[in-house]
Structure formats: C-alpha cells, structure tokens
Amino acid sequence: MKDQYVGDINDYRKYALLRALSAGGTNPIGVCWMMTPDDGGMDGGKLAYLQQPSRFRLYDSELFDILGQTASAPGRRRLKAIEDSGAIPGAIYHNDLLPDDASSRHAFMDACASEFRKIDLAFFDPDNGLEVSLRKGRKNSSKYLYLDEVAAFYGAGKSLLIYQHFPRMERSEFVGRCVARLRSVAPGTFLWAFKTAHVVFFLLLHPESPSRLAFAAMAACERWNPEFLTGRLLGANYRPHN
C-alpha cells in the first residue's frame, strides 16, 4: 500500500469490504498496510468517482464522505487520516514501512503478529498481491505477501483477507491458481473471493473463527451490485469457469 493510493476507487471498495466484515466493530480487524514509499506514479489518481455521488455514494455513504474529505484535504492523502477517521470500526493498524531485506521483513511480520494476537481477522494490503517468482529479500519483494507468511498467521488461528491485483491474464484462471496456492498453506479454510474490476480480495476463514465472521462474509456477498463489488464462497472443489 502507498499513501498515493488513499481515497481512490479501489480504496473505496477495499474499505467498504473491511467495514462490512467488521460489522460495526463486532469483528475487530488487524490491518497490515504493508506500506511502501510513494513512487511518483499516477496509479493513485482514480478519484473521479468522488465527483459522482449519485452513482457511488449509495454503496457506503459514511465512507464516501470520509474519503472525500481525506482526498481533498491538502497534504492529508495518507493512511493516518483514514486510521484517525474511524472508517474501520475497532481496527488495529500495523503501519510501519515494509522493507525489502529479509531480516527486517521477518521482524516486521513478528511485530505484526504480536499486535494482532487478540484479533480474529488480519488484512494484508500488498501493492501487488501474492508472491510471484521474486525471492523474498530481493528488491521490490515488499510489494508481495509470501505464502509462508500466510501459513504462519493461519497457523496461529487467524483468518486472513488478502488484497490481490489482477495481472494481465484470464481472470478466472488466475483466481483458480491463487485458490489452489492458498489452500495448500491454509488447510481446512473456508475461502471466499470478492472481485472488482481490477482487484480480487481473498478471504480465508479459519475453521476456529467465530461464526459471526462467516455471517458477515455472507452478508457482504449480497450487499452491493456487481459494478461495485461481488463476492462468493468458493467450494472445496472450486474450478475456474472457462
């Protein structure tokens, strides 16, 4: 996650999903931003939706207004503004910069696990998503969440929500590959996918998570129309549609 993305349309969908899963703070969420420095790019400029309240405000009016204020305030398009706004009720934030080098990254994840010890759901917000062929510790490895890290948090009894940007390949096939990889390190998980035009969020519910978290996930699947966000529970025998 980068400060330059704060308030864009993907941010709106992300926070709306987090708010739905938190159920007003009933399900406290640990938010690991996986912060990386701004790169001066234009990816964070998708703010036109804020000028179309009749089309977009209905999805979460309170959140829409928070993001409008955050994005328009000079010098405050940053995650601290979101944290201070209370947009995600009851959330705990791990907002340190995530380094590339392996030893510092290990310390980062240890600190995150310590901060999240009393929560049931941990959200990870990497710039790109799950690991690719880039080895941990190499330049730009901070843009990815690695499967051994998924396994560690899941093994500690946590449910996980993971941000994943869609690459340039057939999307149902890509989702299927991600599902197989996640199941390989999270045995017994109840796995959900929440899709948008450019992003998919994978929700891995630990079998020992409170049932209220599953109820919140089911409700989120019915909450919005597909233009905004669509979700579904993926069965154990899930296969991508051709």
Blueprint (SSEs and pairs):
Blueprint: H1 9-22, E1 29-32, H2 53-56, H3 61-72, H4 79-85, E2 92-94, H5 102-115, E3 121-124, E4 129-130, E5 144-145, H6 147-155, E6 159-165, H7 171-185, E7 190-195, E8 199-205, H8 211-221, E9 230-234
Helix pairs in contact: 1-8
What attributes does this structure have?
242 residues; single chain; 7-stranded mixed β-sheet; two-stranded parallel ribbon
What does this structure look like?
With 242 residues, the chain is of the alpha/beta class. The protein has one domain: Rossmann fold (3-Layer(aba) Sandwich). A 7-stranded mixed sheet has the order 2-1-3-6-8-7-9, sandwiched between helices. Strand 7 and strand 8 form a beta hairpin. Helix 1 crosses helix 8. It is globular, with a radius of gyration of 17 Å. The mean pLDDT is 90.
Unreliable spans are none
Q: How many angstroms does the end-to-end distance come to?
A: 32 Å
Series of secondary-structure elements, N-terminal to C-terminal: HEHHHEHEEEHEHEEHE
- Major sheet characteristics: 7 strands, mixed
Strand content: 15-25%
Class derived from helix and strand content = alpha/beta
Shape: globular
Summarize the structure.
Helix content is 36%, strand content 17%. It is built from 8 helices and 9 strands.
